[in-house]
């Protein structure tokens, strides 16, 4: 197996710039790796071999012609199957979209293509991004490369597992309540949820419009920052997009100086319900930051305890409306169209057959929460909580520059462990949800392995709106200090996957 | 068996009608409300669509600033307050011609609210309070195929054209309208007609009623005469001409009165208007179960028109219709009575446009309130729906002014236009309507008239020049009307030496 797959995106870019490797070689190496291990990992739902190699060849040609190329030109990437790519099957992990080929590129894909980044294929996810394990995918569960018996997190488990399995050096995820950061934590990789509005949602199949945020996934902080810079920025096609310069994330990732940085440990995100091994690694990381010159204090965010219930009213409400368009009339699955059924009946039969149990659960929850007579008590109340949580953040940022917590209460659990207990599943996102409700920037960085199970632990950094760079500052500082201790990034400790071919 | 309807006089003797009118107006913006697709009417089905207005997964709306501007114009012209901050909302319900299965609309935060306007009926001015005007998008258009009626029942399948999906609409909602019962239907008509004029004057809509760009829903309820307790209302949908508004309101008054006077209850329901038979029939029953689950549209940021922008728009508005009427009357030199006829005849805007095209106010009034008003009455249409434009009137009058036509021939040209016989020139040619301007032909006819009427010539010569009129009549008859009477008089006078 080629060692090209072990390289970081920054290293691969350097190899191409210096002429030591071509994009076609690098892309082929990753396609070979996918062929070798993905039967076990199942990170991908669709592999676009031809398209990827064509894109790679085009980059090589342009480079040979002496064209000025973007920093990540020629580097391969795995794309979460919730973003549209023209002519490439896009399912959002659902049967209801089986066979659908979008007629248009999402803004994300447009920017990736413009940057010369090679899209290898589409990665697995919980259906419509509803879940924390990929077990809700209609196309089978993704396995955690650290332990194939465990889940890789979700909803973007496919993207993070692809990184941890060395199937891709870069990936795109979307984060509605933690779907980038939690899988990042569970797979020992970096996952960043940019500021809401910092990355375009145009072409992202909506789960909850006011929460969904696409963002970068990578094995190193610098790689994530390079990708972040390529995909972020104002998009007139998304009216919730922010018309402001992209924060200087790459500079922050290269610098990583936390001296004098005020770091707040969120009191409410720890203690009961948190795995001891997770807490141990988290506190060690905090100490490390102190040693590096950060000023660490404890900060209280009293309304965070209401984040989960508020989230599970707002998300289903928006989702119930966003998912109404899947009605068999214009695209995707159509059931019962035999000439005897009315359009309404066909809609019902299709939605019955096409949606999985968790999707139906949330559609029903949301439909109820928005119903006349219940709206104020549920949706309206949840919006008030949302305001209070945003205010908690505001108050905290008066005292500190960033907030930190474990990314998840536990490490990755066994496949099947929580699938029948929605509440236990929802609790995975306790630490990540507040940032979505407030629209802040947040990220998870690897900070070691839990003693109990030897599984990765994620260190969670939250920063104010459009201060995404501060997340990278902390991540870079932590990464270099830990790498010094370990003799390399955490991923180097991952077990070798068996190569099936 | 009780009658289906009461006579209107009997109905109004027992009950007072209460109305509410909801008017949907399609704006004439170049692009749709939330995407860049064109809005032209009549394009082949599904050729003016994109991922956004088709509601494809992942697509997002962006608000059309022109649409907001038009909404503000309409709000200001209806004396509304303009919201400093408002949001779009999703109205959730499933229907195949709604691409997203929710309509992006406004709910409890309309862009314009608390306004008023006035209409004039039979010389009386009635004030109508405006509840709100809000922005929303139109749906696609379903065509039900394979059935006898074109309705969904009995159809084998349906076709959906999404060209209309996403076209900006403004919904204008009145507060309850309570006017003397015998005026109710006429006030409803006058209101919709006034809105048409206003929207045209604002330039925000083409208001082509035949293309459905102005659609009216009429809410009607009855209460016992003198009572203050509101009755149950029905909502009659898609009443799409001025005359139909009047007829539909009248019909609902007489129908509900029949139900109530027989001891029955009026059902709260949607009713369909049938243009051909002039009746309404029951549609779906409206119950509390109809729950649209409105919530603020999370894909759009709030609309917060700056006060500077609103004032800029206000300054650009054409003058208020009531002030304008006073000014026009003065400019045109019409009497109060003449002006009232113009307004009651819905001819104001038509005459304004005609005069703008160079026709004298008197001539414009003569045509619109004369020949054309007669034709409108006969066909049960409004003047504006006749298919004759101010340009047509101006072109005909120009020919009269040039002496190519006289009034009698001009009436025939209008008759031809109304019957769809082609252009003005084609009609003149086909019907042989050109005036004889050849002096020698006229002089020959005059000679014949003089020869045939020696007694008249005698009278003229004996000092009664007014008698010459009979000779002119004879010449005109000889020319089968195709002569300019003034020219004939001139030549005749020269001949007779008067």
Number of strands of chain A: 11
Q: Report how far the terminal alpha carbons of chain B are from each other.
A: 78 Å
Instruction: State the fourth-level CATH superfamily of chain A.
Output: Amidase signature (AS) domain
| Average pLDDT, all residues of chain B | 90
Please give the oligomerization state of what you see. Answer: heterodimer
Largest sheet: spatial strand order of chain B = 2-5-6-9-1-10-11-12-13
- What is the molecular shape of chain A? globular
Secondary-structure element pattern of chain A, one letter each: HHEHEHEHEHEEHHEHEHHHHEHHEEH
Mean pLDDT of chain A: 96
Classify the secondary structure makeup of chain B into a structural class: alpha+beta
Strand content of chain B: 15-25%
Share of residues in strands of chain A: 5-15%
CATH class of chain A: Alpha Beta
Return the domain count of chain A: 1
Q: In percent, how helical is the residue content of chain A?
A: 25-40%
Characterize the main sheet of chain A. 11 strands, mixed
Please tally the β strands of chain B and state the result.
Answer: 14
Q: Which residue ranges of chain A are poorly predicted, with pLDDT under 50 across at least 5 consecutive positions?
A: none
EC number (chain B): 6.3.5.-
Enzyme class (chain B): ligase
Catalytic activity (chain B): L-glutamyl-tRNA(Gln) + L-glutamine + ATP + H2O = L-glutaminyl-tRNA(Gln) + L-glutamate + ADP + phosphate + H(+); L-aspartyl-tRNA(Asn) + L-glutamine + ATP + H2O = L-asparaginyl-tRNA(Asn) + L-glutamate + ADP + phosphate + 2 H(+)
Subunit structure (chain B): Heterotrimer of A, B and C subunits.
